[in-house]
Amino acid sequence: MARTTRRAAGTLEQLLAAKEIVICCGSGGVGKTTTAAAAGAMAAARLGGKVLVVTVDPARRLANALGLESFGNVETRVPDSAFAEAGIECQGELWAAMLDTKQSWDDLVRQHAPDAKTRDAILSNPLYTNITGRFVQSHDYIAMERLYEIHASGRYDLVIVDTPPTRNALDFLEAPERMADFFSSRLLRWLTVPYRSRLVNMATKPFYKVADTILGSAFLEDIAEFFLLFQTMYDGFVERARAVQRVLEDKRTTFVVVSTLESAPLREAEYFMAALEERRFHLGAVVLNKVLPSYLLDSGAAEAASRLGADPQAAAAALDDLGDPEAAARVVAEISQSFLNFRVVASREAEQRKELGRTPDVLATVPYFDSDIFDLAGLVRLGEQIWR
Amino acid sequence: MTPLLDRRLLFVTGKGGVGKTTIAAALGTLAADHGKRTLVCEVDAKGNLSDFFEAGRTGFDPLPISENLSAMSMNTEESLKEYLSLQLKIPVIARIGPLARTFDFVATAAPGVKEILTVGKLTWEVREQHYDLVVVDASASGHIVGQLAAPDAINELVQVGLVRDQTGWMLDILGDPTQTGVVIVAAPEEMPVQETIELAGRLREETVVELAAVVVNRVLPELFNAGEEALFERLRHDDGLVAALAEVGGGPVEPILDAAELAVSLRRSRAGHLQKLRTELAGTEMLYVPYLFQRSHGVRATNRIAGHLGEELGF
After folding, report:
1. Using CA of residue A203, residue A209, residue A211, residue A214, what is the dihedral sign?
2. Which residues of chain B does A314 touch, with a Cβ-Cβ cutoff of 8 Å?
3. Cβ atoms of B256 and A339 closer than 8 Å
4. How many helices (H) and strands (E) would you count in chain B?
């Protein structure tokens, strides 16, 4: 399939050779995970060094291709034999891991809890279980936290992270800041006052009375306990959140925005690019997936399709070697219409790409593959499209 | 099973990028066209539901779209204010600022609170019979279970109090398959199909809400029957025939043949995913919506999709 031209100067190869952390972001369903994995496979194979791809929820077959049998924060090396089977010589090492939110939170608590008693009390607090297990916002922070932890360990030359699917792309950018704000909020201290000091019976004050009527005192106590326990880890937590924030701002970190040329994901991508600029984060590349081939824009072919579609019988007559003129006419009518149909969409996409506001250093286009990618060979095939 | 549009509350979900909002807007349009007083509500305040109706920005107060159709965007803070004033008879929320802040705080600490304010508002609209049908452009498949399970979660966490009293009737509405159902939107591609199958299982195991239907969006048309495909293959690989075709067309035809081949192979790989979906979810109502080859996704697309859904539902 024809590769579409690119305006920008740099290449993904240069970008990945220069950076230590790559954060792939974009709205759901645009091929973010696959792009992250392809970039990782290419970096390991071509640039060498130790490369880790952290994914959130990969398609099963892709996970299998990377040797990820089960969830968990275990970093697994993709065996050289897998590269050999795909006919690729790998200069470095490719590692992969899946993000396990619950386990990551538990690890964080274990690390920062002052003693075993506090640790166990937090781990068994019903609110804690709910926040970490069930709800979405916690994924954003923990993804960034894991990234920090892995980077700080110095175990890898390059870490590529696939971010959780959020409707609001900014959530995870702001997660470290929000986490720090949250634990230092005055409101939090205020709410936990009656439980910190039984001497002053705050629970009789109107504010607590209303809260108590609505939520019940048992629930309020759960909340208070949760925050009292968490306060013991306050310093460690806030410091950590700030460190995570610094990693995002670091010169060695870059963001790759992944999108398709459909209007909704593209709008999200542009919004995200603006947000990165505002925060002075580094926008390294934009990768556009599932782009229809450029031959659909051939205007001579469009005219031919219109002519053939207007009189398929005439075309069938010219194709008398094919036999069955009626079937031949149907084939001509179908392919003409199909070309014109796809052309409408391709034209819209071309226009959308032209309107893409900020030009990143690297703008890579990936054609519409007619099958899903589920092995290393496929990842590298995709990687080749965006590499240079 | 209760016919889809005879239910009162439909949660439309699906993997990101499959056209969830389009389908929610189209289902609402279809129901309204058939005389039902319909509300379409997006739960994500940053969503783009209004693009699909082209009727101005939607907010917490329902925006009239057409005779029977209104649209709104959920806002949990507004929902809380409404709840406090209607249910708890606390009239002026502005005066008890600290309470609102407390809720903001509690909502962050126990995010189930946000979910319950959303589900609570929706079920309340149903209970009060303000509409015949409420169509929800709900959270994506990763988050919908948390949202629908929120009343249960709150039941576990909050043992007493007014919030606890409210979850009972919410669960009654959510758990009644004649009233409430989930519609999963899928595209015939690997990940959306996989997520749809997994979500169907999780809905069964973790929520009280029934899966009402699966909408398969963006189904590509079949170009050829078997005989025609053989014929196309011969044409494609015969230089003489290609030249003859170019002669009649008066222009290059290679792109036309390439495009046909792309269409055939896309259709074929998608047929496999579709088959898997049908097998795994046998017994679930499946509605097929064709891929629309058109310029944009405005109200025109919404109406066309409403038409296709109407045909699928036998209107």
Report:
1. positive
2. 248
3. yes
4. 13, 8
Using alpha carbons, select from B154, B105, B111 the residue that is nearest to residue A135: B111
Query: With an 8 Å Cβ cutoff, is B251 touching chain A?
Result: yes
Q: Is B132 among the residues known to form the active site?
A: no
Q: What is the pLDDT of residues A58-100, one digit of tens each?
A: 666 677 767 676 656 788 899 888 899 889 999 999 999 888 7
Residues 124-183 of B with CB under 8 A from A: 139-140, 142-143, 146, 149, 153, 156-164
DSSP 8-state class, residue A138: H
pTM of structure = 0.84
Which B residues, 262 through 291, put their C-beta within 8 Å of a C-beta on chain A?
Answer: 262-263, 265-266, 269
| Residues of B with Cβ-Cβ distance to A269 under 8 angstroms | none
Question: Domain boundaries in chain B?
Answer: 4-221+281-312
Quick check: A15 and A160 in contact, CB under 8 A? no
* Residue B2, min C-alpha distance to chain A (Å): 31
Strand order in the sheet with A158-162: A76-77, A93-98, A50-55, A158-162, A21-25, A253-259, A283-291, A362-367
**ipTM attached to this prediction:** 0.87
Residue with tokens 């309204």: B32
Question: Which amino acid is present at A180?
Answer: A
Residues 6+ apart with CB under 8 A from A201: A194
What's the farthest any 2 CA atoms get from each other in chain A?
A: 100
Q: What angle do CA A166, A168, A171 make, to 5 degrees?
A: 80
Best CA proximity match to B254, nearest among A300, A261, A321, A65 = A300
- Burial profile A213-252: b = 16 or more Cβ within 10 angstroms, e = fewer: ebbbbebbebbbbbbebbbbbeeebbebbeebbebbeeee
Inter-chain CB proximity B256 and A368 less than 8 Å: no
The topology under which CATH files domain B4-221+281-312 is Rossmann fold (3.40.50)
Query: A260-303 pLDDT, tens per residue?
Result: 998 778 888 888 898 888 888 899 999 999 899 999 999 999 99
Distance (Å) of CA A16 to CA A34, A149, A173, B178: 16, 20, 21, 55
